[in-house]
TrEMBL record:
Compartmental location: Membrane
InterPro entries: MFS_trans_sf, NRT1/PTR, POT_fam, PTR2_symporter_CS
Protein name, UniProt field: Protein NRT1/ PTR FAMILY 5.4
Organism name: Raphanus sativus
First-listed, main subcellular location of the protein, grouped into a coarse class: membrane
Topological type in the membrane: Multi-pass membrane protein
Keywords: Membrane, Phosphoprotein, Transmembrane, Transmembrane helix
Gene Ontology CC: one annotated term: membrane
GO molecular function: dipeptide transmembrane transporter activity; tripeptide transmembrane transporter activity
Presence of the UniProt keyword Zinc in the record: no
Family note: Belongs to the major facilitator superfamily. Proton-dependent oligopeptide transporter (POT/PTR) (TC 2.A.17) family.
Pfam families registered for this protein in UniProt: PTR2 (PF00854)
Length: 560
């Protein structure tokens, strides 16, 4: 009977790009559905359901937050019970159920119940997202090995092109579905979304013979709890005593089994969070025990280092919250801002406000190949790093771009307000301000460039720097910061409304010509700047994985 902590990998000639491409197409199709809904949700809530701008923004942020927090539960089920493949498959059917409920909510349901039915569909989708989001990326990344520098470089390219497939799907959705929703009907647009999810499930099933699958390893939180309990029991002991499992020969049988079956590495001891090292100390009770090692009293170094990996990511996670709060403006205030500007081409064609989000996608589609094929090879010659720059450096560049972008947004909105005042449109919110929507191009382009650095860097960091048996959890942690960022954005909106109203002039009113959205953007920019400083402080002290060598050496501190 296999040990519950061991992970068995199908070692047949499976995996690689031949398998990953199926999963990438599935993700592209699923993102087509998600962004086909999310990109124009502000318009639906305000125009069709009659909600105010601030209320709609809060509802969108709350839904997005729940959608990105449910993956924690989905990841736990995948890593401990179901496995990633089964979790992706089952959650896809739940996601499909929510998608089918969308067109029904605007056609079959009575008008007085329409809003409740619509939000019920949204949150059923959120449950489905909980299983799909954290597992589909890690399942695709599992198709590639890590045994050599070449394989690691391939995996780095995978993360770039994985995000590229997401952006391609979302860009097609923004360009096509927005026009269907606004020019044909919302029910038709929602029906197309549901059909795309059916196609995604079929493609996923076709690729089954090619996939490299993994068996769940049991609850990953048990190993974490064991370290904390063992360290607490021995908190009075000195760390100068002999440690259990400090070299390869002393590693536990289950850890060596895990290494041999998963190509995982035993981790070497590091000097951070030294209190946890007490869990590895062999005391009198451990020496006199004739029984097998008690895992709640004595843990090997590699297990302790797994817990340290998680703890190291916590301050990085915190420093990324404001970046994710900034991203929510793309689906809320950016859209309302564009709806009040001149979007006409020629005499008869008007660009839907949500269509501007395709600029972000086009930017990413252009920048990622340049980054992967030009930037990385040239920088690699200088740094000798397989990714050109580290994940943390990549994220830092993106955070700076996001901060600068919110400043640009503030300047553009200030100009729009001046134009509205100059033309006497302060109290005419339904009249288009005679200012070209092309002024919005820089902020959408900068969002795309920032995403190439930060989002892809986050995906890579939270995959590589998690224990191999907890990588679905790592993906969920990465996604949870997006969810928390959405809730933080809602909190900022509420705080700004309350504080500004108490001073006599509310900043975020329905009439944007009388609002001060520019001030709000400057608040976001300031908070981003503070967050960037905190990130730089923590990233400069971050310690990458240190891997034990089988010859009782340490391969060195490195980014896996």
């Amino acid at each position: 009977m296999a040990d519950s902590t061991s992970l068995i990998v199908n070692k047949e000639a499976k995996g690689g790009w031949n398998a990953a491409v199926f999963i990438m197409v599935v993700e592209m199709t699923e993102r087509f559905a998600f962004y086909g809904l999310a990109s124009n949700l502000m318009t639906f809530l305000t125009n069709e359901l009659g909600q105010s701008t601030a209320t709609a923004a809060k509802h969108i942020n709350t839904w997005l937050g729940v959608s990105y927090l449910f993956p924690i539960l989905g990841a736990f089920l995948a890593d401990s019970i179901l496995g990633r493949f089964k979790t992706v498959l089952l959650s896809s059917f739940v996601y499909l159920l929510g998608m089918v409920m969308l067109p029904l909510s605007v056609t079959v349901v009575a008008p007085r119940l329409r809003e409740k039915a619509f939000f019920m569909a949204l949150y059923v989708m959120a449950v489905g997202e909980g299983g799909h989001k954290p597992c589909v990326m890690t399942f695709a990344a599992d198709q590639f090995g890590e045994a050599s520098t070449e394989e690691k470089a391939t995996k780095t390219s995978f993360f770039n092109y994985w995000y590229l497939s997401i952006v391609l799907g979302s860009s097609i959705a923004v360009l096509a579905l927005v026009f269907i929703q606004e020019r044909v009907s919302w029910s038709a647009g929602f029906s197309v979304i549901a059909g795309s999810v059916v196609i995604a499930i079929l493609i996923f099933l076709i690729g089954i013979p090619r996939y490299r699958k993994q068996v769940p390893v049991g609850s990953p939180f048990t190993r974490v709890a064991q370290v904390i309990v063992a360290a607490t029991k021995k908190w009075r002991l000195s760390t100068t005593r002999h440690h259990y499992g400090i070299c390869y020969e002393e590693g536990t049988e289950e850890d060596k089994s895990l290494e041999s079956t998963t190509n995982a590495h035993l981790l070497a001891r590091t000097n951070q969070f030294r209190f946890l090292d007490k869990a590895t100390i062999i005391d009198e009770v451990d020496n006199t025990s004739n029984k097998n090692r008690n895992p709640w009293r004595l843990c090997p170094v590699s297990q302790v280092e797994e817990v340290k990996l998680i703890l190291r990511l916590v301050p990085i996670w915190i420093s990324l919250i404001m970046f994710c709060a900034t991203l929510t403006q793309l689906n809320t205030f950016f859209l309302k801002q564009g709806s009040m500007m001149n979007r006409t081409i020629g005499d008869h064609f008007t660009i839907p406000p949500a269509a501007f989000q395709s600029i972000v996608g086009v930017t990413i589609l252009i920048v990622i190949p340049i980054y992967d094929r030009v930037f990385v090879p040239n920088v690699r010659k200088i740094t000798n790093h397989h990714s050109g720059i580290t994940s943390l450096q990549r994220i830092g560049v993106g955070l700076f771009i996001a901060t600068f972008n919110m400043m640009v947004c503030g300047f553009v909105e200030a100009k729009r307000l001046r134009v509205a005042r100059d033309h006497g449109l302060i109290d005419s919110p339904k009249v288009v301000v005679p200012m070209s929507s092309l002024w919005l191009l820089p902020q959408y382009i900068l969002v795309g460039i920032g995403d190439v650095f930060t989002i892809v860097g986050m995906q890579e960091l939270f995959y590589d720097q998690m224990p191999e048996t907890m990588r679905s959890i790592g993906a969920a942690i990465f996604m949870s910061v997006v969810g928390v960022g959405s809730f933080v954005s809602t909190g900022i909106i509420s705080a700004v409304q309350t504080i500004s109203k108490s001073h006599g002039e509310e900043w975020l009113v329905n009439n944007l010509n009388r609002a001060h959205l520019d001030y709000f953007y400057w608040v976001i920019a300031s908070l981003n700047a503070v967050s960037l400083c905190f990130y730089l402080f923590m990233a400069n002290r971050f310690v990458y994985k240190k891997v034990q060598d089988k010859d009782d050496g340490v391969e060195g501190e490195r980014e896996e």
